[in-house]
Design a protein that fits this description.
Elements (H helix, E strand, L loop, with lengths): L3 E6 L6 H14 L4 E5 L5 H11 L9 H25 L3 E5 L2 H11 L4 H12 L6 E6 L2 H12 L13 H17 L4 E5 L4 H16 L1
Parallel strand pairs: 1-3, 1-4, 2-3, 4-5
Helix pairs in contact: 1-8, 2-3, 3-5, 4-5, 4-7
């Protein structure tokens, strides 16, 4: 069977990781092998970049342009080392973030040049375009409440999570603009519902693709 590439997008604490785990379990029951990846990270090179981007003290000095290129570097390695081979072997690849995150976080949120970012995304993805993207949409107020429950007492918010509510409002608007522009690829899922409700919305769409 041909591979299927599915990405999950959304703001902080919208439930992407939880829904990916649930979808993997359901795919397994239906006899489809899947692979879950995440950005930034997953590969050894990506994990080193992730630490620099999100947790390293020196990251406080990082320019927006450097941030953009580091996210792109992590993705380039992930595509070539993991995603493309998995798709060629017929797996369903579930990605916790892909290039839409760069468009909205570094483009819309940071205000960097969107035309350049679109070209960079194309170069980095090397033709790997998600067959379907689930946008787990969540308002910023509820996102903050979930973050508070998630990070304590485990640890402090990372460098991105510490950004302002105004930044995340821009991010949400950016995601919704992408969904409006690409309705066939990007499906909006109300992430404020229960885990079961969100999972059913996702499975309905995926089951149609597999059929």
């Amino acid at each position: 069977m041909p591979g299927l590439f599915v990405s999950f997008e959304g703001g902080e604490a919208c439930g992407k990781s939880t829904q990916i785990k649930r979808l993997m379990a359901r795919l397994e029951k239906h006899g489809r092998q899947s692979l879950a990846v995440h950005e930034p990270g997953f590969t050894k090179i990506g994990l080193a970049i992730r630490e620099l981007l999100l947790n390293a003290t020196v990251g406080k000095l990082m320019s927006y342009e450097t941030e953009l290129l580091l996210f792109a570097a992590s993705r380039a390695q992930l595509v070539r080392e993991t995603i493309r081979p998995a798709l060629e072997n017929g797996l369903v690849v579930l990605s916790d973030r892909f290039y839409d995150s760069t468009t909205v976080y570094q483009g819309v949120g940071r205000g960097l040049d969107l035309q350049f970012i679109n070209a960079l995304n194309e170069f980095v993805a090397e033709g790997c375009r998600p067959d379907r993207t689930f946008l787990l949409d969540l308002d910023v107020t509820l996102s903050r409440k979930r973050q508070m429950r998630r990070v304590r007492p485990v640890g402090q918010p990372d460098r991105i999570e510490q950004l302002s509510d105004e930044f995340f409002e821009k991010v949400r608007r950016g995601y919704l603009e992408i969904a409006r522009a690409e309705p066939e690829r990007v499906k909006i899922v109300d992430a404020s519902g229960s885990e079961d409700q969100v999972a059913e919305s996702i499975w309905s769409e995926i089951n149609g693709l597999l059929s």
